[in-house]
UniProtKB/TrEMBL annotation:
The keyword S-adenosyl-L-methionine does not apply. InterPro entries: AA-Vitamin_Transporters, EamA_dom, EmrE-like. Keywords: Cell membrane, Membrane, Transmembrane, Transmembrane helix. Its main location: membrane. It comes from Serratia proteamaculans (strain 568). The chain crosses the membrane at residues 37-55, 67-87, 93-115, 122-139, 151-168, 175-201, 213-235, 247-266, 272-291. One of its GO terms (cellular component) is membrane. It is a multi-pass membrane protein. This is EamA domain-containing protein.
Length: 314
């Protein structure tokens, strides 16, 4: 029964994350990126705060960590998610998902630089393979209209770097909070900030918003931003950290397939072939970290039933 539950949760998370990138592309078609991201968080926040109220979960971080909660609001939610949807105004949703699938690689690099984490030959090999394969994909996909492509690519890569940096800072601080606490209030504050900033600087015209774009932001907030978070947390509780992390190898394939099916656009054959070594590289970085990460998760969950700092969500 446990294997069935883990399989269902894994599939739900992969589908949620895979469809998120297409939803961001649809949202950005008629809604400016910053305002769209603000709408996304404003749709998600009421559900998260309501869950916190029903479960009597605190909205604030522990004393001494509340300034860092503001940092998470800005640098985990507001800036990176705005960069993601901004990047998708220049590159395909499939390519965006492939870039973000390198999060485990970015986390490994950030952990080495910030935490002096020990590495092994397998990790370094996986890191090198993933970076070379990703660069090959990016160079191959920018053969045409390279200026705008690189603008979007840089935005997405920066989003990955910021997320990885915040992740390592959470690990460095060694505190554990509920997944709802981590997301609810920062999500709400980020939504307010981005909605106001988007209104002031992007001057969105509501009459220009398409129904599809509005529905996409609702999906990103109310479904992907709430249901996706809860499913991923449940998956991490029931599966090993390595098993849960394998979703990074699956959701880009879903995103690429959906974009091809709906828009008739697919990345080139060369790039598709380069996904194979990219997946191998990511897999090697994951498999060598799996045992230690799993141990830390189990220890934290057994002590207080809360998640530690691994709270990566798309």
């Amino acid at each position: 029964m446990r294997k069935v539950t883990v399989s269902i949760l894994f599939l739900l998370v992969a589908l949620t994350w895979g469809t998120t990138w297409l939803a961001m592309r649809i949202a950005a078609e008629t809604i400016p990126p910053v305002f769209a991201t603000g709408m996304r968080f404003m749709f998600a926040a009421p559900f998260l705060i309501s869950i916190a109220w029903l479960k009597k979960t605190p909205l604030l971080f522990p004393p001494g960590q509340r300034l860092f909660q503001l940092v998470i609001c800005i640098f985990y939610f507001a800036i990176p998610f705005s960069l993601m949807i901004y990047g998708e105004t220049y590159v395909s949703s499939g390519l965006a998902s492939i870039i973000f699938a390198n999060m485990p690689v970015a986390v490994l690099i950030a952990s080495i630089l910030s935490l002096n984490e020990k590495t092994n030959t397998i990790q370094i090999g996986g890191l090198a393979i993933a970076i070379v394969a990703l660069m090959g994909i990016l160079l191959n996909e920018t053969n045409t209209n390279s200026e705008s492509h690189w603008q979007g690519i840089l935005a997405l890569v920066l989003a990955v770097i910021i997320h990885a940096t915040i992740y390592t800072q959470c690990k460095k601080r060694s505190f554990a909070v509920s997944v709802i606490t981590f997301n609810a209030l920062p999500c709400f504050l980020a939504g307010l900030i981005l909605t106001m900033a988007g209104y002031l600087f992007e001057r969105p015209l509501l009459s220009n918003f398409s129904v599809n774009s509005i529905l996409a932001t609702v999906y990103l907030g109310a479904f992907a931003g709430v249901f996706g978070i809860l499913c991923y947390f449940a998956l991490q509780q029931k599966a090993t950290a390595f098993q849960a992390s394998l979703v990074f190898l699956i959701f880009p394939l879903i995103a690429v397939s959906l974009e091809n099916y709906i828009y008739g656009y697919a990345i080139s054959t060369k790039s598709m072939l380069l996904i194979i070594p990219l997946a191998i590289g990511i897999f090697l970085t994951l498999v060598s970290r799996g045992a230690s990460e799993s141990g830390r998760w189990r220890e934290s969950l057994s002590k207080n039933g809360r998640i530690p700092d691994d709270t990566e969500h798309s």
